[in-house]
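Na+/H+ antiporter
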Amino acid sequence: MIGMSYEEILLFALGAVGVLIIVHWVTEKTGLPAAVLLTVVGIAYSYLPGHNIVLDEHIILYFILPPLLYNAALDSSLLDIRRNMRTVISLSVVLVLITALLIGVGFSYWVAGATLAAGVALGAAVAPPDPVAALAVGRKAGLPGKLITLIQGEGLLNDATALTLLTVAIAAQQDGNFSMPSAIGQFVISAAGGVLIGVAVAYIVRFLRPLRSDPLSANALSIITPLAAFLVAEHWHLSGVLAVVVAGLMIGHDTPRYTTGASRLQTSAVWRLIDFLLEGVVFLLIGQQVKSILGALNDYSWSTIAVALSITLGAVLLIRPLWLVVTQLLPRQLHLRLGGQQDDDMDCPEGVKKEEPINGREVTALSWAGTRGVITLAAIFALPHDFPNRELLVFCAMIVVLVTLVGQGLTFAPLVRWLGLRADQKDKARLRNEARSAAVQAALNRLDDIQEEQHDNVEDEAIEQMRKQLQVRLDRYRRRLDLLEQVESQEVPQSPQYEAALMVRQAVIDAEREELLRWRDAGRLSDDNLRVLNRELDHEELVLPKRPGSH
């Protein structure tokens, strides 16, 4: 933002937020990729008179990537990643390394003036798919839960692998010598150290759990955690990205146990806003860089640009499906096949079906779920400004993002439907209602324990009142389970009584809210009191299913 006054910076910030809101609305109405629209808006802005913002690689590396990765880790499942460790290693580590190294070798041999380190840096940036677009489309299309888990787990740890490799490649280029054994050794040390730092940060946050009971303190602690993990790891020349991811996975796993409901609700809302703003602003700012990047390409011949693009796009589009097919054909002992039980001697938990290896249709869907996004763009712009062939590398990465976002992003949902891949909604509804029944039964058992202890008549009344409420819920869940068992189709059956109860409860909440507003407008209720009472209604409304099949 060099050369811009404070007023210009403020106007730019206000305009950027306004653009994000408009683009989000357009995306919701049309289904077009928000990343593409924001990048186009950024490109258009760059040709307008006035100042353009020059991206600083340190701002991206220290202030943008850690929060984005941490939020993704909080929303992921540590248990799912552990259960699918072979798949995670195959897609998030091996496939990323192979893609990056092949692009590096291709650049060193066929792109004039490019080094192996420069090619590996580009490969590391474009290797990791961004699962956000694929998951958003896949969930709407009803993608099976097994594939959702694979895409989500891959998308989390492949970023860590790629960005760790990117750091190694940048350091090797600056040293002037890229040695494969040395790079591998540095990668292993950096990754292992980052994991240890992440574990240490997660345990420190667990130790601070008294602070996490207060929503404001929990939010402040949550915001500084990824920045602290990244800073400590980078200070010791270890993988700050892995430190952030590991810390996020462990803290997300502990969150239901060590935080209050109010803290979780507020923290989740804060992180959704941070993610929305950071991702949107990154695409806007990156679009602004296109003008200067295209101008810098004048230093390269058309043949050099064509070769560089062919190598990059060819590797991104071909290596992933080839790897998925090959790994499914390999012997199981090599531990690279996807899906199914991860270890032959591992017992499947009681009540959990043993998963089968993924089939051909699922391999096809996973092959097409390779859209690149904000991590690729943020990573490539993290290259130092004096990095060799930087403009060519950035241009190739941007083309990869646009091709995959538009080409794969817009065709993924039709492909999923054409393949006939549908989630078993009835099984999901059955599992949720079984869990709800078990939770309510545990609450009734706890009431029995309380009743056996010393108590007075007032407590007797409170216990009996609570028992009646819990029994009503338990009866409702059991009736829902009976209905699910009676229906032979895989779709979730609709219960007229259940839907009527939801409609009535929503109508009651709306009536309560309208009455509170009438009291406020009549001067009988202050705004402070209105906010407190409205918050209570908001929490009640939050637990109501928003669409058929979500219950």
